[in-house]
Every structure is written in C-alpha cells, then in structure tokens.
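Sample 1 of the test manifest.
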Amino acid sequence: MSSISVARGNPRTNRVVSQVLGEAGIGVALVALGVFFLAFAPHFGTAQNIRDIMTQITLNTILAVGMTFIILVGGIDLSVGSLIALCAVVAGTAMEGGGAGSIPGAILLSLLIGAAAGFINGFVTERWRVPSFIVTLGMLYVARGAAQQYTGAATIYSLPESLTSFGTATLAGVPAVFAVALLMAAVAWFVLSRTVFGRLVYATGNNEEAVRLSGHRTGVIKVICFMIGGACVGVAAIVYMARLGVASPILGQGYELNAIAAVVIGGASLSGGRGSVIGTLLGACLLGVLTNGLLLMGVSDFQRTIVTGAVIIVAVVLDAYRKRLSTRLSVAS
Amino acid sequence: MPTTTDTALLDIAGLTKRYAGVTALDEVDLSVKAGEIHILIGENGAGKSTLVKCLAGIERPDGGTMTFGGEPHRPAAAADALRAGIQVVHQELALLPALSVAENLFLQRLPRRLGLVDRGAMRRRARQLLEQVGLEVSPDTPVERLGIAQMQLVEIAKALSGDCRLLVMDEPTATLTPRETATLFTQLRRLTAEGVAVIYISHHLEEIFEIGDRLTVLRNGRGVHTGPVAELTPAELVRMMVGRDLDAEYPPVADRPVGDHLLRVTDLKVTPDAPPVSLSVRSGEVVGVAGLVGSGRTETMRAIFGADRPAAGTVEVRGRPVRITHPRDAVRHGISFLTEDRKAQGLVLDLPIAANMSLAAIDQVSRLGLLSHGAETAAARDLSERLHVRATGPHQKVRALSGGNQQKVVLARWLAADTDLLIVDEPTRGIDVGARYEIHQLLLSLADSGKGVLVVSSDLPELLGICDRILVFSKGRIAGEIARPDFDAERVLNLAYSGYLKNGISA
C-alpha cells in the first residue's frame, strides 16, 4: 500500500509532462512525420494530396472508431473485414439497379446486419465467457462465407449513381466521406466522454467486477460496445460502395488489423479501460500519412508494408514505456 | 517417536517486517529442531503468513536474523530458499491443471536425456513420491481430473521432490477429509523420522494437539509463547491468542433506539451443501460478523448482496420478500456492499476520485444519460470533505491515494448511494490508525441516523469496539451471537473455533 509519496520534482511540471506523454505523444509523432514528408516526399503538401489522404483513411477511421468501443471494454473484433463484405453485398443487392430512393433502406439494412453480427459476437463472448478473440475469429469465417453464399461469389456493379457521386463529392474542400468519418468520431467522442454509458465503458474496461458490484450490468454494456462496433462496420460498407461503386464478397480482407492498429497506435490498451477516440483518429491519420508519404517517396509496396509493421511495434513499445513513466509521475505528484 | 535433536535446524531471532506503517512482524523469535513438527498458530493477521513469506524468500524482512542449518539464511528470492532446502506448501494450489501429475511434480527440474524430457525416469520417480504421500493415482493423470484433496497431496509430493530439510505447510488440511488427513499425518511422521523439520500452520485445534510437538503462538505480530504442545489445554491456547492489546481507541458508542427489521435472511445456503444461515439487522444497529477466514462470512454477505447466487434461502428487506440475483437488485432494494478487496473489487484505479465516488449513484449526477461533470465534481467535493479524503482534488486518480484514502473513496461511493443497509467487509484492513478511527466514526453515525450496518471483520477489537452485537461464524454456520453487555474476546474466539473442534473446548 503506497501512501502519498513525496513529490519528486515540481508536481505541476510532472503533471504536464505526464499529460503530454499520456495524450499528445501520438500527435507529436504525427506532426514530426508530416514535417519529414513535407521535406522529403514530393507533392506531399499539396491540397490534392491532403484530400487523397483523407479519402484513403476514411474507411479505417470509421472501423477504428467502432473498434475503440470494443477494445475499451477489453474485447477485440476480428470479424470486421469479413463483416464489411457481408454488409456491402446485402445492402448492395438491395440497391442494385435502383435509384436514390433505394439508398436509405440499404443503409438501414447494412447497419442492422452489422449491429446484429456485433450482438452475436458480444452475446456469445459474455454468455459463455469465451475470449472475443475466438468468437470473432469464428465470425470472420461465417461472415465471409455468408457474403459469398449470398451473391454466389459475384460482384455487384450497378449501384445508384447518387451514391457513387457522394463518394467523390467534397464539402468545403473536404471529401464528403471523410466528413462522415469525422462526424462519427465526434459522436463517439461525445458518447464516451459525456454520457453515463461512456463512463461505464471506461470503468468496465478498468475493473469490471467493481462496476458490477456497484450495481451495473456490465455484460449489457459490453454487448452494446460490440453492437456499436458492428454498426460502424455497416456504415463503412456503405462508404466503401460509395467510393468504389462496387460491392464484392471478397472485399475488406485484413481491414480488422488496420483498425486494431489504429486504435493501439492511438494509445489504447488491449486489456481495456484505456484509449480514446481522439487517439484512434490520430492513429488512423498516422497510418494513412505514413503509407501516403512513403508512396510519394517511391518506396515499394513491400517495403511500405515492412515500415508500417515496424511503426506499429515501435508505437506499442513506446506506449508501454510511456504508461510506466506517466503512472510513476502521477503517483509522484 | 520422532528423532528430535537438541540443536535447532532453523533459528529466527528478532524478525521484523513492516508494511507501510503496519508492523506485521515485531521481533519474532522462532526455533525449529530437526525432526520436530512445530505448530505456528495465531489469529487472522497475527503474522503467520508474513513469517512464512520471509522464510521462503518471498518477502524481505526489515530486521532480525535467520539461521538455517548453521548458516545465515538471507534469501533474496524464492529460489534461494528452495536451494537451501526449505519447501513451502501454500494454501492456494499452484498446479498447472492441463499437465500430468508427473509433469507438475518435476516442473522445476524435468529429468532430461539428450535434451529431451526423460519420461520413463520422470514416471518412476513420480510413482515413488506419490507413494510417499499415499496418493494412489497414475503419474500420467492430468491434474485437472483430480479432486481438491488429491491436488493438495500432489502439492506436498512436489515439495518433497526437491531437497527438503524443512517443510512448511500452510493449512494443508483445510480441504482434506479425515481419512486423507490421517494419511498425511502418517507421512509427516515418516518424514520427521528421517530428520526433516516441519512447520505446520493450522486453525484446527484438534489437529494441532494430535500432530504437534511444540508450538509458537503469534499475536499481533509478536511471538507470545513457545513450548511443548502437550503442556497446554485448548482453552489456554485460545486465551493466549486473544489476549491482545485492546488499547486501540474507539469512538463512543451511544445508546441508539433500535427500529424495525431492515434485513432478514432466512436459511440462506451459499452452496447446496452449505449449512443454512439466518440473520437479521434492524434499523439503527451495528451488527458485527466475526469468524476465521474461510468460515463463510464473506460468502454469506456476497450471497445476500447478489454478488454470487445463493443456492437457497429467502431475503426480506423491510419485511417484504425480495429476489436478489444481481448487485443491481440489492442496490435498488437499499443494500450496499463494501468488498474486502478494495483494489480488485472496489476501485476503478485509473479513473479519478469523482468517477469512483459516483459509480453506484450515477443517476444523481446525470440526466437522460448525460453526465453532468459539474454536479459530479461538486458531489465528490462534498463527500471528500465529509470523509476527510486527503487528495489533490476530485480529479486525482485513485491509484495515487493511500490505502486509507482509497477506502474512504469506496465508502463515499456507497454513502452517495444512500442505502438503508450497509454491509462492510474488512472496512479498516491495511489502513492507518487515523483513517480507521474516522471510518469507525462514520459507521456509527450511519447507525445513529437510523441505518443498519453489518461489519465483517477479522479485527476482533474493532468488532468489540463499535458493534451492538456480534454474530460468530464457524465452519459455514453461525455458531453463536453475543450482545454488547456480554462482549468478551475469548468467548468470540471460542465460538469461532468451535466448528473446527469435535468436542468443543473444555477448560
């Protein structure tokens, strides 16, 4: 039992340092990377390239925002990549050859499928106390198979034009789809930081038993987080179709890993209770900027993949170090 | 008769260990001879476990010397103690369930041939060891298929597999049947005949008198008696364990009007085979719950609160039968529960004080699901002031607080919930004297305002100091109830031990 220890150094400096380490570390890294590419990657700073980056990171941002909820309660969702394909082919089939009028129904359908799959992931995890890692791994296969079964492995091409034109539209210079991602991040931030539910999400991820013994149904909270993650996949499926104008049952492979990477680079702990939407957003930006900048520098595809992997590892190691340091400082102050 | 020599195998002198202001061991002396079974006995928290931990290299003592086999014993890690020949069988089993008995036995030194595990040799030696402890199972059986008692015997066999000159057993028979206990004792005698010394920790007085050669009584971290077991009667032994300084200060207990029944529990069984428990708490009452660790106190409270599902029984709140299947139901019916392990079950360490305090009454600081940070901070300020929480402010993380202040934060959470009945489990364990007094004061003031308080505690003076009556648990049942005018530490302890003694204690 540690009593309040004598402050080492100036408490206020300690607090500022620990806050910088705690929240801003990823932002600093992002800025540094931006400066680096501005100097060495041709055309990196042009308006068109910035817009390209925004478009490129849209899908991962949406998926990672949903993943943040799941990781905050100590879960993981590996089914994201397959689920986006399932949502897309079902919603895409509903819109196939249709006009703008078919879009709202298709969006609703996509959200429902995503949320339903999330419910199954969460419910099975909670009800039978099995790791979500395994449950969602199973769902990864189920959703992929279901998507292929649904279309007979065919790709859907004739999507409504108003949908695909939304995919290329810009809003005050910002790609409309990226605006959607930002809006979702903003809502998620509000939910996590300003609502009772958000508080219970953090508390449950930190110490589930304490929250349960304070009279809350932690199982319900966790299942809802999985459903939010699933619904975000539903949104991502619509955005995918808007951008690329197709829905294919084999799309989205490996997307789950990109989303998890963004959340983790954003400072979340895989054991739950720690992380933030802002961190996730910055994490997704960092991954996007890295890929884009390296591409402009002429680095090959393979080498890019190697660098991305290395960055993830470095981010997690730095994070572990930072966590220890900031805990020590916060105890000291 | 064991071959007892006069030279001590283990000599401990002036052993001292402090934890953040609490002295767990205060200049304890202990001398154990080769070939003897030395009993270590004392109340919960008397320092037995700490002593064993120092001996086994798990904790570093703050003072004193240990000599083992004529050489200074200063283990820096558990491996050092093992190398010296000190084997400890802990209360908690440390077996790997998926591995076989033989693999568990030799995990630390798997017999190898050409870099591969020599399964034949392992099996042969496992068979010998199992025979030594009288366990008749195949060495290839996965440990998860064994019963608890059998696992216990595997643990003992594991201890014997290494070089063992001193065997320390921490309540080994807690889960054994009489027949298994008898087997164990036979094996222990065989070991001591070979010159092995045994330190034996147990609450079972009967066993102590059956197996012990000499004993050392610990009280409040101090050794108060060492001598042959045969020279004592059970009653004398209990008196020695209790006779502890009752000099701690308690707030004055006022005469309170006792009101209606707040809680009435009838024939509650924590498991289908457990004995039924009935108890009640009235408004304005502070009811103590005494008993040894593992006597069913905490289990009963958890079942009442809905933290675990009871197997049977009825609970009435204010005269109305209620169904409590989740802590949520309990809170709704006006019951709070302060758990014994505040870090694992109470605090959300990485959230600030304010968030921890509002957790059980979050509706009070929110509207339509939206948190009001202002209201939450204000509520936390009020509660911190009321409970004298010492912190930099409501936004400080709970992790950074001292034990006493952490406990106040959890208490504040339940004060905010404002329930009629408050169950507190070990409310002052591991916290400083000042905070302790304040918590006692708070519990009494709650009773003054007409609430009911159930206090589970291993700290007997605490119960005697603040309760109106004390229920004593022993081996799963309530062995007796003592009202304030009849309070007597010895009586409480006699009741607490009564379930573990076949014929009761005769003076």
